[in-house]
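Example 5.3 — tRNA-specific 2-thiouridylase MnmA
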Amino acid sequence: MLAAMSGGVDSAVAAARMVDAGHDVTGVHLALSSNPQSFRSGARGCCTLEDSRDARRAADVLGIPFYIWDLAERFRADVVDDFVAEYAAGRTPNPCLRCNEKIKFAAVLDRALALGFDAVCTGHYARILDGPHGRELHRAADPEKDQSYVLGVLTSDQLRHAMFPLGDTVKTEIRDEAARRGLAVADKPDSHDICFIADGDTAGFLRNQLGEAPGELVDTSGSVVGEHDGTYGFTIGQRKGLRIGRPAADGKPRYVLDISPVDRRVTVGPREDLAVDEVVGMTPRWCGAAPSGAMECAAQFRAHGTAVPSRVEVDGDAVTVRFHEAQEGVAPGQAVVLYDGDRVIGSATIERTAAWAGSPA
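Solution (predicted structure tokens):
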């Protein structure tokens, strides 16, 4: 059993539970930055030298072998470069899903299996259960910590070689358990936001990567209402930081409705224009057998959002999701994750959306 140890409390307790369960556990810390900082910036970020040392100390307490795997080059290509390219194209990616898909349960799992390990365990909050669909991915018992959304890219084969020991536990119990075990990370703050943007300034990070590309903010009539430094600084549904030069005629706030990197235009308008009732997703990933035809299920398009009742049609690599009620702030590039109750059916990357036009048929 290979235990991925980030240097945080969750992965340390997950590894400890695998030891208690009688598994022959080896800890591994993933070095994902080619130039890691020595210390974290507040409670943000991860993968620093401090984190690797914390992971090693936890492994020492548990009495398990420990290694550091350098995956910085792979992480840069598959996660960071993808993140930058998606924003440059006017899309809104989720790097945590991409990391789980390309790094933790592809590069790491493939290497683990090649080395003779039978599974990889992580500190994710989700459950893997045996059911009529084989090995099934389910939501965690703690809804506040549930991470099944960012794991919705895992295939059935990957689920057969994955373990999530924390899925039945709430976070407060994890910290208490870590303290009882003598793990120094018991009170360590959680990492937040995007791990490779330690200061949380996504727009600044993208500006450094892409350079300034000034353009216009326009309203739905095409009138120029402001200027910007780059379309990558915006996401669909954004309200704050628009720097609009003059207020709307009705005095109401305006939101980002559309992003067009080609002509460097960002369209803003009233909140009601954000409503969509349909999304089309591509490159689906199924946590079991691929469904076909139409089905009723719930669809979630944010990591901490609510899954909403929907009708889904699967046609090869295209997944059409029709919400029963209009949804706001849905953007191309996001993942739509499908649920049957607590069970994750699978996911797809949103390619396009359709504006709300009344109740779906």
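Remark. Residues 135 and 159 are 6 Å apart (CA to CA).
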